[in-house]
Amino acid sequence: MSQSKDFLRIKVEEDLKSGxxxxxxxxxxxxxxxxxxxxxxxxxxxxxxxxxxxxxxCNLRMDDTNPTKEDTKYVExxxxxxxxxxxxxxxxxxxxxxxxxxxxxxxxxxxxMGKAYVDSLTEEQIREYxxxxxxxxxxxxYANRTIEENLDLLERMKNGEFKDGEHVxxxxxxxxxxxxxxxxxxxxxxxxxxxxxxGDDWCIYPMYDFxxxxxxxxxxxxxxxxxxxxxxxxxxxxxxxxxxxxxxPRPYQSEFARLGINYTVMSKRKLLELVQEEKVSxxxxxRMPTIAGYKRRGYTKESILNFCEQIGIAKANSMxxxxxxxxxxxxxxxxxxxxxxxxxDPLKVTIENYEGSEEIDASYYPHDVPKEGSRKIPFSKEIxxxxxxxxxxxxxxxxxxxxxxxxxxxxxxxxxxxxxIKDENGNILEIKAEYYPNSKSGSDTSGIKVKSAIQWLSxxxxxxxxxxxxDRLFKSEAPQGLEDIxxxxxxxxxxxxxxxxxxxxxxxxxFQFERQGYFYVDPVDSSEExxxxxxxxxxxxxxxxxxxxxxPQAKETKETKKQTAKTQVIGTEEAMNNEQKExxxxxxxxxGLNTEVSNILARDEALSSFYQxxxxxxxxxxSLANMVVNEVARELKEKEIAQLKFTANxxxxxxxxxxxxxxxxxxxxxxxxxxxxxxxxxxQIVEEKGLIQISDPEVISPIIDEVIAKNPDNVAKFKxxxxxxxxxxxxxxxxxTGGKANPKVVNKLVAEKLx
Length: 755
Ligand code: ATP
Ligand code: MG
Description:
alpha/beta, Rossmann fold, seven-stranded mixed beta sheet, 26 helices, binds magnesium ion
């Protein structure tokens, strides 16, 4: 039972206390027209949860009043979802269609009471007559039909004498009611369609507003809990039950806020579209927000229930950040699953001073997890490491293997790089390494300091697996349609490698692949010959950095803090994802940028896309990259692209001014400051401020002479061999000209004059 009571439970307790009901009976009433989603999980959690908390029961009711959209496969999916979440309806599974005869009798009764009539207006006329929020509606002339006429027409509607839309049954309430839903709502319509349960028995079907309250009543429901969009329907709910003067107790409706999650859609209609348009592999595609999708992806029921508990029950609709759900699954698995090693993009390492083989005993669980179990990790001369765990020219803060930096093999020895073997295109094929025999993890006496530990696998024993990396299905926070689908929501890696124990031991179906995330054996596609693992979730929230507007709502617990600290020791700087790696490679290999600049650009989506915009306009990759990384990046730290005063065009214009020798890069910084502040074009700024670069030796020469004359001591030192002082003179000249002198020209002239 939840610790703090929500408004629904408060009401339930009041009703029990006052004796209004003897037993609490709730119901979960989905329409079987699609697979249930995480929003339904919330409704299941509330309805079954309340029944459980107060020793009542919850009915599972299929609200099957729309024959054209419903199907038994959806009924099965709904049952699966409820069971998987750990709830049981016992004997209480019902179908609204089972009540069709009773509901029909109630309709007859309303007609007899003069409270319902058969209307024969067209659909369009009905809409017109209804009026607007500001204007009262007008009652149909057919409302004057006698009771006998109405009874006769309804009977003939039922017998199939009329076509779809020819007549409807309406409640006679109030055509000027402020609540538009009360303006003579429809109770029955004609639908000549085959129903998946009642077949062709019926060609009239009750509307939601008529069927729902009566089904609740028939089942003896006490609390009819639904989502806020039904708030206006409550008046009809009450009207029907009150007018029919039913024996008490009768149910009452209460509403709670619907669950919405960002980066996905949450309606069966929209989810059906994804399935039908084959944007996903089916209702249980691991990217779908369906319960079947989460289950197949590897989410545990505990994580879903915890999530439902955390978001609580409120009366106001709100959007929940998907990172909160991701937090819940991480939090659950962190304490449960074995940790093993996997290599997604293998790079061969040959340890030249190692011969033979051995097995390293390693626990599956970190010491703070109260679970036991260990496996043997084979070690040999030839191993694989993750390609991105080696860098020849590492940027600052890169703590993994480099030609000058040893690294620890997780659970194993420290190795250092001796040689890098490349193909004719400069691609790294293999690393020749050396290991330190006395550096084994747990008994290390080598005294060698390493900054991180990386995952690895013995080449001979490693097992090949397929890995499916999932990302959010939509790239925008509030997707409008299929065009917002994230094209990179699924990446398949065919030849990843895992420790043999993962396949042979079968200690669990879920694993933490260290530094990569949590993974689950795909229950549909995985086989002995081709093991397939789904990434359930990464180890850290990688989107929090990408999009500045989203703040995770989840509270950090002690466990997660510890977990983050731990992965940092192992992982240090977060590994680039494949997309970032590709960019990094393009920058270093094709555009000739240095690794530091490439690293910054590749890791920042906004920055790299801005850079690409610039590149499309001007083929000056290095100057542009410097400008983007040094200047634009600063602005983008505080602002979104749309808020910037300048565009890629302006940056290109600015870089052209440098490339053409019109301004120095120092002046360019000044121009950029102006540009960022007021958005004037760089050319205009240069002109207005008289910033044009001085390249004329005639102008520069006398300034150099002046500087030389003022600094006799330094001239003497320079001539005595302190050539570093060249920079001092150049600097002085640039300073005197306010940065306007062309540094190249100054350099050349100073060198000549000091000879
Ligand atoms: P959808 O628009 O996805 O088809 P629905 O409201 O039509 O949803 P039903 O299957 O008719 O779904 O509803 C079953 C129950 O689940 C209802 O009581 C409904 O209020 C609840 N429900 C549906 N969506 C959500 C949601 N996003 N959050 C909470 N409860 C929901
Ligand atoms: Mg619906």
